[in-house]
Amino acid sequence: MSEGIFSDFDAVARALWGHHDVKLRHRLHERSLFSDAALGRILDAIPPGQMAINTMGRTGHDVRSWSYCERGDMSGEELIKAVNAGRIWINVTKANEIVPEFGALLSEMFGEIEANVPDLDVIRKSMGLLISSPNAQVFYHADVPGQSLWQIRGEKRIYIYPNREPFLRPADLENIIRGRTEEEVPYHAWFDRHAAVHDLAPGDMLHWPLNGPHRVENKDCLNISITTEHWTPEIRRHFGVQYGNGILRSAGLAPRSASVHGAAAYAKCALAVGWRLSGQQKRQSFRRTMKYRLDSREPGYLVPIGGALQAGE
Ligand SMILES: [Fe+2]
């Protein structure tokens, strides 16, 4: 029987969970599941739709340089080599549904979290596997469900910003929740003065308040990380209310409240459900465009599709 996931989940972490950044120590990095050979085999088994491959500019915060790439015919092992040498960010989404070991690990992780935070009622959860290049970055964005980042190999810095104005405007959050933009929100360099900055090494885990905007900078080393997402009844209600507020705002009615309690909150959730059932969600959703194809014969491993410029140029 292996040791538990956490080594320091204490009363302070329990009190902070969901309300404030919580940094804990975990033992996932001690498991053989994350060696190059094991990850290569895992990547070979991932269907194309469940792997997002991105590249981005070398320096600065140019969100337009965030570009999607096709995998081409690269094996899992070649992909890891390309990540090591290039400027690539691979996100295997819902890895727990594809790789049975990850499914079991996710249950173990949340089993321990829920045992430590008794009020937490997780009704849905998923796990993403991140394999990313030395010095790669992810620009300022906000995510919809509860988020945690678990560092396995390499080191990175994450900036967490307050989940309220001016760092996150209600209309921007509503657009993310409705899938009308891809998680990005307006960013200014001065926001950094109000960020909590966390350096993550193997064995560190960070959980932060719902929808807290964040951005990530890898240190000069290959990074292997896990992200977990979770939903509770309250997060689902928050989603419904924001979704309903977004529909009202797009109809010219400025919503006055984002409360998840009371009759108005339930009416907004019902509005959101109706909207999604009507097919409006699909019609208005953001769509991804592939700009590069990965190719092991190319320096930087990227070939532009249809004359796209190299990222960072
Ligand atoms: Fe994120």
What does this structure look like?
The longest helix has 18 residues, at 233-250. The chain has a ten-stranded mixed beta sheet with strand order 1-10-7-12-5-4-2-3-13-14. Strands 6-11-8-9 form a four-stranded antiparallel beta sheet, with no helix packed on it. It has nine helices and 14 strands. It has two domains: 11-231, Jelly Rolls; 233-281, no CATH class. It is an alpha+beta fold and 313 residues long. It has helices spanning 11-16, 36-44, 76-85, 95-98, 100-116, 170-177, 233-250, 263-277, 280-284, and strands spanning 22-25, 51-55, 67-70, 88-92, 124-132, 137-141, 146-153, 156-160, 196-200, 204-208, 214-218, 223-231, 290-294, 302-304. Helix 2 packs across helix 3 (76-85), helix 6 (170-177) packs across helix 7 and helix 7 (233-250) packs across helix 8. Fe (ii) ion is lined by residues 141, 143, 147, 214.
What is the fold's blueprint, element by element?
Blueprint (H helix, E strand, L loop, with lengths): L10 H6 L5 E4 L10 H9 L6 E5 L11 E4 L5 H10 L2 E5 L2 H4 L1 H17 L7 E9 L4 E5 L4 E8 L2 E5 L9 H8 L18 E5 L3 E5 L5 E5 L4 E9 L1 H18 L12 H15 L2 H5 L5 E5 L7 E3 L9
Helix pairs in contact: 2-3, 6-7, 7-8
Estimate the helix proportion, in percent.
25-40%
- Biggest sheet: strand arrangement: 1-10-7-12-5-4-2-3-13-14
CATH architecture of the largest domain: Sandwich
Please give the number of β-strands: 14
Structural category: alpha+beta
Shape: globular
Number of helices: 9
- CATH topology-level fold name of the largest domain: Jelly Rolls
Under CATH, the homologous superfamily of the largest domain reads Cupin
Oligomer designation: single chain
Q: What is the number of domains?
A: 2
**Helix-strand pattern, N to C?**
HEHEEHEHHEEEEHEEEEHHHEE
Distance between the first and last residues' Cα: 51 Å
Specify Rg, calculated over alpha carbons.
20 Å
Flag low-confidence runs. Answer: 308-313
List ligands, each type once.
fe (ii) ion
| Mean pLDDT rating | 88
Strand content: 15-25%
Largest sheet: 10 strands, mixed
